[in-house]
Amino acid sequence: MERKAKGLKLADILTTIVIAIVFGVIYKVWGPLYDMVKVFGFHADQLMYGMWFIASSLAYLLIRKPGVALLAETAASSGELIMGSQWGLEVLIYGFVQGLFAELVFAAFRYRRFDVFVVSLSAVGATAGSLIMDFYKGYIDALAPWNMALFLLARFIGAIVIAGAFAVSLAKALEKTGVTQMWRPASQDDYDALNR
Amino acid sequence: MKWEISHRETWLYEANPTLKLAVLVVLFLAVLLIHNPNVLINLSLALFLLFCFGTGYPANVLFWMFLPFFLIFFSSASSMMMFGEGTTTWFRWGLIHITAESFWRGLHLGFRALALGLLGLIFALTTRPVPLFYSLMQQLKLKPKYAYSFLAAVRLLPIMLEELQTIRHALKVRGVPRQGGLGKVKRYAIPLLSQSIRRAQRIAVAMEAKQFSGSGPRTFYYEIGFSKYDGWFVALFAAFLFAAYYVGIHYPYIPIRDVR
């Protein structure tokens, strides 16, 4: 019997979507928070933007399979939509594009690296995805140059801190709870312990 | 979470969810292509009225749901108004530079955000998750393993909220000092996520045993088709667009036709 199906198994999909829905709730409450910070001006809000990329980073770090990053980000944004996001359908399209760009970065490393560098790079990818959407939709190219530079800098830094470094620290803490044993039943440490 | 609030089900609930989503996509693209603020203001007004009288929720609930939209309206508009480029200066103070062009563009952006948000909220309020995913499986051929995973995950949400409350109480009882920012997120996220992941893995085993992952032909408990309400739904939004354009072009509020 051909049991080794290609692609994601139901367990992978379900877990990814559950993680995504948790972040969908966070994405939803992040919206009003972000708008409140936005009123202060000077793009302080952009530092928070990275939270909207974290589902793809975290799902990838935990499940470590192709397609998970894209699925997680799309699912999280559709969860946000179903809960009545203030951006409406836009979040679904943004989520898909952001997930796609994060996924491309992981694919570029052939799904073999799980360190801060690659995850941060995927956050940068997702940021690029979100910016492409913004340019298409928001007329941000009409901002004055100094303001534009500040905007971009804040968003990239926020993304690297939250969807990069913070996602890795979350994933490490979750590894310790043993929930990833389904995908990685034995680590190198375990084999070393046997050989001792 | 919204589906726990008591409300009346209007005919909008009866329209096919996939069709509603398709109409939403079309309107989304249409809104992006509107550059005349008069048309956009009319469309936003029409959507606002539908939100108030078409969703069947009580007024106080609608008010709280609409509150974030005020914020998004001002935040979308203000940044462009104060820092956007333009030639006709109205006001200048330090880095803040309001011009006629940036003001109208900002206003336009605010209404655009409002219209898009209202569209999404109307969809979210009048569409229940179960018919939505059954319809996506039947009309758009979404793979059942994705759709049922979504439904299972949505069902886990109330349990997660309960757990969140438990964690909050546990931290309080143990006198854990308050913490802000990402540290707080982490303190709640680790137990919540780990519990949810374990639960998801158990549910996945059960679902696999019951062949939810199968790819063969299958029947559905809920058959979602089309009805007269779908015709009404399309007609309603077509009328909105037409009226917005007609009134916007013939009876403009502001003398700007294109904000670009």
What does this structure look like?
The complex is a heterodimer of chains A (196) and B (260). Chain A is built from seven helices and no strands. By secondary structure, chain A is mainly alpha-helical. Chain A has a single domain (11-180), classed as Arp2/3 complex 21 kDa subunit ARPC3 (Orthogonal Bundle), CATH 1.10.1760. In chain A, helix 3 (68-82) runs antiparallel to helix 4 (90-108). The longest helix of chain A has 32 residues, at 145-176. The radius of gyration of chain A is 18 Å and the shape is globular. The termini of chain A are far apart. The model of chain A has no long low-confidence stretch (mean pLDDT 86). Chain B has 260 residues and is mostly helical. Chain B has two domains: 2-128 and 227-250, no CATH class; 144-209, no CATH class. In chain B, 69% of the residues lie in helices and 3% in strands. Chain B has helices at residues 17-33, 37-54, 59-83, 100-126, 129-139, 144-173, 181-209, 228-250, and strands spanning 89-93, 96-99. A two-stranded antiparallel ribbon of chain B has the order 1-2.
Distance between the termini of chain A: 38 Å
* Total helical elements of chain A: 7
Number of strands of chain A: 0
Q: Helix and strand succession of chain B? A: HHHEEHHHHH
Total number of β-strand segments of chain B? 2
The share of residues in extended strands of chain B comes to: under 5%
Taken from the alpha-carbon principal axes, the silhouette of chain A is: globular
How many whole angstroms does the radius of gyration of chain A measure? Answer: 18 Å
Order of helices and strands of chain A: HHHHHHH
What is the radius of gyration of chain B? 23 Å
What is the CATH T-level topology of chain A?
A: Arp2/3 complex 21 kDa subunit ARPC3
- Mean pLDDT metric of chain B: 86
